[in-house]
Amino acid sequence: MVTVAVVTLAVTLFALARGGSLEVVANTRFRAGWVLFTGLAAQIALAVWRPAWLSDDAELAVLLGSNALVASFLVANRRLPGMALAGIGLALNVAVIGANGAMPVDRAAVSGVGISMEGAGPKHEPLDDDTALPWLADVIPVTPTREILSVGDVFLAVGIARLVYARAMWRRHARHRAEPTG
Q1: pLDDT tens for residues 7-47?
Q2: Quick count: other Cβ atoms within 10 Å of Cβ 179?
Q3: φ, ψ at 138 (rounded to 5°)
Q4: Helix crossing, 83-100 with 56-76: angle to 10°?
Q5: DSSP state, 30?
Q6: What are phi and psi of 166, to 5 degrees?
Q7: Helical ranges in the chain per DSSP H
């Protein structure tokens, strides 16, 4: 998601302008990183390769399973700042996908950002009157990046931004806590 990358870059630049450092960010030790990469690889594979033998139910199972792997990563790293917010975002997205079999996308938001549902991939479907949990669907148009976000995507973006900011500012905050106050 381009919007998540833009938000993360903006937060990184803000932290650097406030005296933060990328050293701690770069040296952050994540637990079970392979679980995250496996989950993301499964989602990417599902987006670019959909074999004819893969039924809709099997596709949904792969999607939910890959999200379970990402959730496992978030749980393993729950003590890091922002991981709880990212976990909430993931849970919201999984809830709406699980309830509908795909992520519903608002047609008005699609036309508002100037894109088409064509090529949206098998993970998306048009939002309609039968959509369960429509307030959790992709309904937030982001015109500059030509994306449509869900509430879950916003939580994910804020969680990732929180992690980057907190880690970038860690040494600065640690230094201020260690200084005598007089």
Answers
A1: 999 999 999 999 999 999 999 999 999 999 999 999 888 88
A2: 7
A3: -75, 100
A4: 170
A5: P
A6: -60, -40
A7: 2-17, 22-26, 33-48, 56-76, 83-100, 107-112, 151-178
